[in-house]
Amino acid sequence: MRRGVEWIVQPVSAAQAQKAYTCPGCGRQIDIGVAHLVAWRADGVLGDAADLAARRHWHQHCWKVA
Ligand SMILES: [Zn+2]
Questions:
Q1: Ligand 1 centroid, distance to 15 Cα (angstroms)
Q2: What's the CA-to-centroid distance between 64 and ligand 1, angstroms?
Q3: What would the pLDDT profile of 25-63 be if each residue is shown by its tens digit?
Q4: pLDDT at residue 13 greater than cutoff 60
Q5: Rounded to two decimals, what is the model's pTM?
Q6: In what order do the strands lie in the sheet with 36-41?
């Protein structure tokens, strides 16, 4: 639970990390080839397609401390 919202969190392995992303926790880049996490809302208020589009990539340590 995070801010009253249920999140689905999936690990992204280094081999799967084929794109660079901006981490919403620290605002810095997650480089290609760096294992990290992807999270999205589980409650589906916006619909599944919108939830998938709104997935966020986080550094592992940023997700833990946020
Ligand atoms: Zn981060």
A1: 19
A2: 10
A3: 999 999 999 999 999 888 777 777 777 778 999 999 999
A4: yes
A5: 0.78
A6: 7-12, 36-41, 56-58
Residue 41 Cα to ligand 1 middle (Å) = 18
**Alpha carbons 57 and 31: distance in angstroms, whole number:** 11
Spatial distance between the Cα atoms of 51 and 63, rounded to a whole number of angstroms: 18
Note residues around ion ligand 1 (Cβ under 5 angstroms): 23, 25-26, 59, 62
What are the Cα distances from residue 23, in Å, to 18, 26, 43?
A: 15, 6, 22
Q: How far is the CA of 27 from the centre of ligand 1 (A)?
A: 6
Return the number of other C-beta atoms located less than 10 Å from residue 12's C-beta.
19
